[in-house]
Amino acid sequence: MYVRLLTQEDFKNLDAYLEPHTGFTFFIRSNAHKGGLDYRGQPYQSEVFGAFKDGDLVGVLSHAWLGHMQVFMTDKSAAVALASTWREHHDGKPRKLSEILGPMDDVLAIRQALGIDEHDLRAGGRDEYLFTLDISTMNVPPQLHEPEYIVRRATIEDGATLIPWRYEFYMEALGDPGGEDARRRAEANINGMIHEKNVYVLEYRGQIVSFCGCGGYLPDWRGIGPVWTPVSFRGKGYARIVTAGALNIVRAGGVRHAVLFSENPQAIRLYEALGFQKIGRWKLDFLINPERSFS
Prior knowledge:
Elements: E1 2-5, H1 11-18, H2 22-35, E2 46-53, E3 56-64, E4 68-73, H3 78-89, E5 99-103, H4 104-114, E6 126-134, E7 149-153, H5 159-174, H6 180-196, E8 199-204, E9 207-215, E10 221-228, H7 238-252, E11 257-262, H8 265-274, E12 277-286
Parallel strand pairs: 4-5, 10-11
Antiparallel strand pairs: 1-2, 2-3, 3-4, 5-12, 6-11, 6-12, 7-8, 8-9, 9-10
Helix pairs in contact: 3-4, 5-6
């Protein structure tokens, strides 16, 4: 097994390897399409290491600009070689490693190869199910045919509503303790999504009642999340309506597939009602010490 840091010259080979598994590799592919493979620490860029066996890619480790590591392997024995090469590459020049995400078995394999155990993880990690949807088969809620319900892209003026809701999402859905840092992250996240035109709102009789993130940088796939309805508006199907409405809009622009992950039984019922199919398990682990050295 041979591992090396990939460059932009490897883009077509990498994308061809990952494309049949886009449900599991959406974030790696999306960042590679947006930021390329020549890492300079800019947004959407990642250091991407490829493991080769008999000349073919069998595993990928992507270390993104924000410190996130994602792994995907069709040969789980690649974990040791990927971890070793990544560690050697950062010997004397460590980079922040804040979280590890990917298919559950791949995350567990790379954690073991890096010597990361449960004591190195902070609360808030997630073990979720992964879902995909062919948007052409979506079960469209009948409310979207009624004039009282309008789904549209969010504007900068909507930020005053969405930023507090994103902050609430951090605390309720992710177990974030809140505070000023979380408020700043919520503001930056919502403003960024509005700027990138990948957040959608549902208006019911002129009032915003729910929102849905629907982003990514692949021509035919979008990732769903976050989806949020404030407590006072729940129980009316708004999350299902805003998700379907967002997908209708991107489908008109040529997008054919969507991916999301969830562990919430109520949310899962919502997504399955739209036609999402469960394809596997997804894991997200947060490290207690993102500045830890692995050399």
